[in-house]
């Protein structure tokens, strides 16, 4: 099955179960100050779950474009390194608003995966919520008993609150969830392990594809749980992962979702995909990032120096630097991927092909502007680390003839290999290197960045500005408007989350 057919089959299947097919919401969230980008299919239905809006249809299904580069869900660092976390991905979903519940949801996921898609039953295993006594949360025995009809018991794994209980925030709708995983290891390898050992979350060929959330409770301010009068189902399946499973590939990037992009990059760079791990990662990162960049721009958010616009600028600069350093693509290139992508998404998300020229032009301009300072910035970075390395060697009385990369030298110097925050700030201020790009470059050469010092430098330069206090509470951040606050800088590692920290004045 092609990716297009797989997507279509999902929607058709749920349509045959009386679901109304709805459109994806934009990836950029404009009317919710607590969420910057859509990070799950259910976002557009938040008000229904909160009881603040009525559902138009009791059952709906769609494919939602999502972005996970900030807040609770930040997968940016995995992208390109592993083969199944993307910045932008599609989440297939089906919902019941006070209509069907666990019995139908479980039966239909099983029917779809094994009968429509034909995934061998012995490759699937599921997880259910084990309960949490301390938090007063019961085990989901109902889901366990339902799964038992389809799956041998040693393939029903008990999961903890972190993986198998969903909540929107500290209060509000919440409930247990049941995940479905596929073990894509070769048959003989799979046969050698028993059910319980399948929970090898780190194995690159054992991947979670689908999450079924059962919104069963309402958590009150005092922490107690109330059973919701109308219970809901919210499911999300990673489309690119599903395609990988059905096309029998070892990586999402080997499917027809990503291959057109990868092939285009590989041709332009004159380097075969698969030739080398470093160039492969660079190609995967670019193929991934251009999707995020293009859809965010198409949905109305231009690259900028703050907020959502800065998130997208950072992702773009990250991609440009991968192309420049590892694929030797020194001229603007990323923008050429926009037409390739637009072609792929015709008839799925037409927003892109309809604005293809505009999106391409924006990306091109961004590339041109960053490429003006990129080379000098990289040179500055290289000469800084070289000088620091020499300094550390002589400080530690190490023979300068020894290569700095030597394992023994590294074992002695590793704790001292710190890039000053002031220098990181200079790279940002003068050469437009977002801090996470500097951190990434540092990490590649086993250096750390002094983030405390970086923040001090940043604060020194920041002018006073007024805004809001943000508290991270889960899938959404709660924003309390407070005029008596002053901006003092971005939150450490979460600069991308735009969770700004403010100090009372
Ligand atoms: P994982 O544990 O793999 O990070 P998750 O538990 O964070 O996934 P959910 O929030 O349950 O993911 O989202 C529902 C589905 O969306 C997942 O089962 C997975 O198939 C898919 N998914 C989640 N994050 C990504 C991502 N970054 N890229 C591609 N697909 C994803
Ligand atoms: Mg995750
Ligand atoms: Mg998970
Ligand atoms: Mg999950």
TrEMBL record:
GO molecular function: alanine-tRNA ligase activity; aminoacyl-tRNA deacylase activity; ATP binding; tRNA binding; zinc ion binding
Protein name: Alanine--tRNA ligase
EC number: 6.1.1.7
Keyword annotations: Aminoacyl-tRNA synthetase, ATP-binding, Coiled coil, Cytoplasm, Ligase, Metal-binding, Nucleotide-binding, Protein biosynthesis, RNA-binding, tRNA-binding, Zinc
GO BP field: alanyl-tRNA aminoacylation
Group of enzyme by EC: ligase
Known cofactor(s): Zn(2+)
Family: Belongs to the class-II aminoacyl-tRNA synthetase family.
Domain Alanyl-transfer RNA synthetases family profile, chain residue ranges per copy: 1-505
Known role: Catalyzes the attachment of alanine to tRNA(Ala) in a two-step reaction: alanine is first activated by ATP to form Ala-AMP and then transferred to the acceptor end of tRNA(Ala). Also edits incorrectly charged Ser-tRNA(Ala) and Gly-tRNA(Ala) via its editing domain.
Catalytic activity, as annotated: tRNA(Ala) + L-alanine + ATP = L-alanyl-tRNA(Ala) + AMP + diphosphate
Cofactor annotation remark: Binds 1 zinc ion per subunit.
Written domain comment of the UniProt record: Consists of three domains; the N-terminal catalytic domain, the editing domain and the C-terminal C-Ala domain. The editing domain removes incorrectly charged amino acids, while the C-Ala domain, along with tRNA(Ala), serves as a bridge to cooperatively bring together the editing and aminoacylation centers thus stimulating deacylation of misacylated tRNAs.
Compartment annotation: Cytoplasm
GO CC, alphabetical: cytoplasm
Chief site of localization: cytoplasm
């Amino acid at each position: 099955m092609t990716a297009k057919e797989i997507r279509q089959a999902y929607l058709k299947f749920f349509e045959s179960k009386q679901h109304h097919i709805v459109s994806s919401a934009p990836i950029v969230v404009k009317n919710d100050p607590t969420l910057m980008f859509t990070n799950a299919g259910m976002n557009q239905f938040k008000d229904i779950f909160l009881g603040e809006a009525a559902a138009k249809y009791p059952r709906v299904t769609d494919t939602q474009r999502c972005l996970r580069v900030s807040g609770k869900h930040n997968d940016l660092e995995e992208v390109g390194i592993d083969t199944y976390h993307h910045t932008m991905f599609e989440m297939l979903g089906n919902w019941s608003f006070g209509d069907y519940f666990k019995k139908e949801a479980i039966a239909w996921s099983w029917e779809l995966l094994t009968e429509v898609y034909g995934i061998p039953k012995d490759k699937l295993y599921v997880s259910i919520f084990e309960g949490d006594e301390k938090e007063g949360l019961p085990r989901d025995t109902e889901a366990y008993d339902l799964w038992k009809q389809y799956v041998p018991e040693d393939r029903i794994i008990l999961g903890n609150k972190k993986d198998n209980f969903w909540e929107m925030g500290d209060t509000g709708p919440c409930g247990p969830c049941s995940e479905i995983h596929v073990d894509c290891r070769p048959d003989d390898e799979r046969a050698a392990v028993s059910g319980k050992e399948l929970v090898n979350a780190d194995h690159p060929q054992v991947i979670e594809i689908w999450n079924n959330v059962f919104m069963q409770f309402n958590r009150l301010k005092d922490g107690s749980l109330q059973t919701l009068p109308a219970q809901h189902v919210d499911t999300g399946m990673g489309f690119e992962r599903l395609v990988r499973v059905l096309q029998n590939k070892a990586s999402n990037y080997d499917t027809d979702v990503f291959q057109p992009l990868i092939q285009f990059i590989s041709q332009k760079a004159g380097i075969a995909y698969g030739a080398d791990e470093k160039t492969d990662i660079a190609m995967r990162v670019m193929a991934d990032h251009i999707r995020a960049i293009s859809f965010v721009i198409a949905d109305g958010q231009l690259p900028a120096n703050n907020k959502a616009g800065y998130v997208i600028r950072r992702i773009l600069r990250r991609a440009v630097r991968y192309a420049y350093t590892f694929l030797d693509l020194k001229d603007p290139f990323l923008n050429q991927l926009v037409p390739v992508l637009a072609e792929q998404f015709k008839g799925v998300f037409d927003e892109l092909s309809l604005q293809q020229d505009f999106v391409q032009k924006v990306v091109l301009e961004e590339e041109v502007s960053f490429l003006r300072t990129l080379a000098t910035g990289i040179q500055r970075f290289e000469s800084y680390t070289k000088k620091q390395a020499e300094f550390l060697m002589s400080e530690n009385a190490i023979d300068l003839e020894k290569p700095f990369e030597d394992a023994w030298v590294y074992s002695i110097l590793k704790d001292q290999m710190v890039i000053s925050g002031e220098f990181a700030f200079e790279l940002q201020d003068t050469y437009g290197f977002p801090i996470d790009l500097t951190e990434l470059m540092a990490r590649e050469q086993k250096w750390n960045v002094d983030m405390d010092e970086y923040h001090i430098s940043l604060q020194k330069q920041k002018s006073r500005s007024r805004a809001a206090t943000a508290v991270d509470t889960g899938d959404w951040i709660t924003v309390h408007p407070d005029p008596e606050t002053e901006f003092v800088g971005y939150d450490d590692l979460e600069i991308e989350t735009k969770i700004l920290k403010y100090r009372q004045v």
